[in-house]
Amino acid sequence: MKIAGQSSELLGLESVLVGSLPATLMTDEAPDRYTVEAVFTRKTDRDEVAAIQGSETRARLSANGFPTVELHVADRRLEIANTNLEELRNGLAAVIAERLVEISAALIAEREIVAHRFQDASAREQARADSVAALAESVSFIPRSAMGVSDDDARIDDWVEEGGAARA
Fold first, then answer.
1. From the CB of residue 27, how many other CB atoms can be counted at a distance below 10 Å?
2. Phi then psi for 13, rounded to 5 degrees?
3. Which pLDDT tens digit goes with each residue over 58-101?
4. pTM for the whole thing?
5. Contact between 38 and 15 (Cβ < 8 Å)
């Protein structure tokens, strides 16, 4: 089951948007920390954005030595604030990449489970509907007398089946 806007491809980053970097880089006026924008490999969905910008990702960055780094999704770009190119090159980029793969894989697995549950529920519902239809088709509005069974014979059969008679 494919849900519109959701991909089974793992999310990643392609490259840094060089044009978004401070113009003063590699000069005496260059800032120590700044925002680096990177391009996603595909469009993100709502659940991915929430996970990327969520507390678990912030905790993961802190645990890996990047407590001041903040991530924000802006369309097909990831804004990585309070960092620099050297920090990204020396390990932050790998931490972010691992987190993106982890988020994607977890969401894909979750969606597959939901899809299987939906398929199972659909199959059960179809089987139930088929059983109801078969039972409804078994109903006959033909008088018993037309079927060669007398009313007395029918009442006796009903009485015997209900347990009202001792069986021999």
1. 8
2. -120, 140
3. 999 999 999 999 999 998 999 999 999 999 999 999 999 999 99
4. 0.65
5. yes
